[in-house]
UniProtKB/TrEMBL annotation:
<feature type="transmembrane region" description="Helical">
    <location>
        <begin position="105"/>
        <end position="126"/>
    </location>
</feature>
<feature type="transmembrane region" description="Helical">
    <location>
        <begin position="371"/>
        <end position="390"/>
    </location>
</feature>
<feature type="transmembrane region" description="Helical">
    <location>
        <begin position="81"/>
        <end position="99"/>
    </location>
</feature>
<keyword id="KW-0472">Membrane</keyword>
<keyword id="KW-0812">Transmembrane</keyword>
<feature type="domain" description="Major facilitator superfamily (MFS) profile">
    <location>
        <begin position="15"/>
        <end position="399"/>
    </location>
</feature>
<dbReference type="InterPro" id="IPR011701">
    <property type="entry name" value="MFS"/>
</dbReference>
<feature type="transmembrane region" description="Helical">
    <location>
        <begin position="223"/>
        <end position="244"/>
    </location>
</feature>
<dbReference type="Pfam" id="PF07690">
    <property type="entry name" value="MFS_1"/>
</dbReference>
<dbReference type="InterPro" id="IPR020846">
    <property type="entry name" value="MFS_dom"/>
</dbReference>
<feature type="transmembrane region" description="Helical">
    <location>
        <begin position="285"/>
        <end position="301"/>
    </location>
</feature>
<feature type="transmembrane region" description="Helical">
    <location>
        <begin position="347"/>
        <end position="365"/>
    </location>
</feature>
<feature type="transmembrane region" description="Helical">
    <location>
        <begin position="18"/>
        <end position="37"/>
    </location>
</feature>
<feature type="transmembrane region" description="Helical">
    <location>
        <begin position="167"/>
        <end position="188"/>
    </location>
</feature>
<feature type="transmembrane region" description="Helical">
    <location>
        <begin position="138"/>
        <end position="161"/>
    </location>
</feature>
<feature type="transmembrane region" description="Helical">
    <location>
        <begin position="49"/>
        <end position="69"/>
    </location>
</feature>
<keyword id="KW-1133">Transmembrane helix</keyword>
């Protein structure tokens, strides 16, 4: 007789909010450096190109961690994995706080990225523990927590660094992670043990991520678009922080932090634009968003010499940038359910590889060509997004004909 696994009890509203808070705190760790990157560079006595390796390696390690560690959720308890990896993040942040040179700081930041998989495990954990009629609501709540974590990290880091120093930012982040590590076992109820799988099965699962990616060109196009899109995101914020805090501009890190607050607009616009994408189709919506984005990016250079002027392109990009991601994910959700997780793994890995490239290129190009060089880089990447989005839409139309 086949034994049926016990159904886990539903999460309470308090537990749902605690999980959302966990995602926000865990996600924030990768983004504290955005407004304070110039301060960190000066503290370690390095240039813009060198300090760009810190966020770049963090993003690359995150991509590698998603590829190698996220599939463990099919073999072990999601609760146990989250607790272990959140605790590991806390240890890595402690290493960043104690680091006395750039090499150790970068090493700790890189390891931090590698073990940052809780934001991708928690939604899977929660989806099995909410009533079916509330699944969308809870999923949206957890997704909004990611945006909120990025927003608070960038705004808070800029303000704290201006009134204290950049080191205080990471001391505070360590305290938040220690608190999350302590209460996470309570927020995540125990779950039935996952069936054990053989190591060979795990290896085959990892290999199938690449096999499936090779078989689905639509996924590869969507992943490439989001990789470029996320590269624009990281390059723009890192270069903007260096630009505005340079002696020529003279703004403080708190000003950069306040400026990062414009990202809050995406919390309100993304759900509405997502509903619009449901009506017109994800590929058409993505093409429109890409066209609007390139218009916004073209405004960065002429308006980028005033903190008030740069608000215009930032608002445009923060309105449509997340929509490009949402519509890309929508193209995956039309595929067979049994392969969506592995295709999403490829998509997310490509996204963070793009983010790493954007981090490295954004700071290196700024070091070489200043604000104008970085704006040209962003315009070139945005042209790539638009070209690929147009190709995807035309390809889809041919398939439907």
């Amino acid at each position: 007789m086949t034994q049926t696994a016990p159904v886990p009890a539903y999460l309470t509203r308090t537990q749902e909010r605690a999980l959302a808070l966990t995602i926000a705190v865990v996600t924030a760790n990768a983004y504290y450096i955005h407004p304070i990157i110039g301060e960190v560079a000066r503290a370690f006595g390095v240039g813009e190109a060198e300090i760009g390796l810190v966020p770049a390696l963090n993003q690359l390690a995150l991509a590698l961690g998603i590829l190698l560690l996220l599939p463990l959720g099919d073999f072990y308890s999601n609760r146990r994995l989250c607790i272990v990896f959140v605790a590991a993040q806390t240890v890595c942040l402690g290493g960043m706080v104690l680091a006395q040179d750039l090499v150790l700081f970068t090493a700790a930041s890189t390891l931090l990225g590698f073990v940052t998989i809780a934001p991708y495990l928690i939604p899977a954990f929660a989806s099995k523990r909410v009533a079916p009629e509330r699944l969308g609501q809870v999923t949206a709540q957890l997704t909004a927590a990611v945006i909120f974590g990025i927003l608070v990290a960038r705004v808070g880091a800029g303000i704290i660094a201006e009134h204290a120093d950049w080191h205080t930012v990471y001391v505070g982040a360590f305290g938040l992670m220690a608190a999350v590590t302590a209460f996470l076992p309570i927020a995540m109820r125990s779950e039935p043990a996952a069936p054990k799988q053989s190591q060979a099965r795990y290896g085959a699962l990892i290999a199938s991520v690449f096999t499936l990616a090779a078989k689905h060109p639509d996924m590869r196009i969507s992943a490439a678009i989001q990789g470029l899109n996320f590269a624009i995101f990281t390059a723009s914020w890192l270069a903007l922080a260096l630009h505005l805090t340079s002696p020529a501009m003279g703004y403080g890190t708190d000003d950069v932090g306040y400026l990062a607050g414009v990202a809050a607009i995406s919390v309100f616009t993304t759900p509405r634009l997502g509903r619009w994408a449901d009506k017109v189709g994800p590929r058409k919506a993505r093409l429109t968003a890409a066209a609007v984005q390139i218009f916004g990016i073209a405004l960065f250079y002429p308006l980028g010499f005033s903190i008030w002027g740069v608000l215009v392109p930032l608002l445009v990009v923060n309105m449509v940038g997340p929509t490009i991601d949402v519509t890309g994910r929508m193209t995956l959700f039309t595929l067979a359910p049994e392969i969506r997780t592995r295709l999403t793994t490829s998509y997310i890995v490509t996204m963070f590889v793009g983010g790493a490239i954007g981090s490295a290129l954004g700071t290196a190009v700024y070091d070489f060509g200043g604000w104008g060089g970085t704006c040209a880089l962003m315009l070139a990447m945005s042209s790539g997004v638009l070209g690929l989005a147009l190709h995807a839409e035309r390809r889809w139309q041919r398939l439907q004909a």
